């Protein structure tokens, strides 16, 4: 008679260990879902900022071209950190335009195939940074309720950066 191996409570299908980081699966799912929306907003803002970097014109060209590049470069690095946190929680990060469009609260400007004037670019980037902050705050509450300090830390850092970007951009319009 063949002996049955005792299965470890930490083992699941395919030999992968169960995730046991002190946050239950239900809470990890809620956090990952929120981070997926945050990632979608962040990616949409990144893309919009990069687009405006390419297409800005006018008397503020040099200043905005450099500012937008600084912002989209920093945002690009942050996207990876957000996606990796989703993965650390045990879930797949969204990674397609279709998923981002579905999850994002930031919408593209469909009004014209032409780039807007620099002032409108700045207004839209202020609104985009503020939208990322609003989404981040919602996820921060979920992470706080689950005692997920690493996600809270990530979101706190991102909020600080996006609030600063919104302030800097808003200052250009005063």
Architecture overview:
The protein is mostly helical and 174 residues long. It has one domain (22-105, 115-171): Ferritin, core subunit, four-helix bundle (Ferritin, Up-down Bundle), CATH 1.20.1260. 67% of the residues lie in helices and 0% in strands. The relative contact order is 0.17.
Output the keywords.
174 residues; mainly alpha; Ferritin; 67% helix; 0% strand; elongated; disordered N terminus
In short:
67% of the residues lie in helices and 0% in strands. The protein is an all-alpha fold and 174 residues long.
Indicate the topology:
Elements: H1 25-55, H2 61-88, H3 97-103, H4 118-145, H5 149-171
Helix pairs in contact: 1-2, 1-3, 1-4, 2-5, 4-5
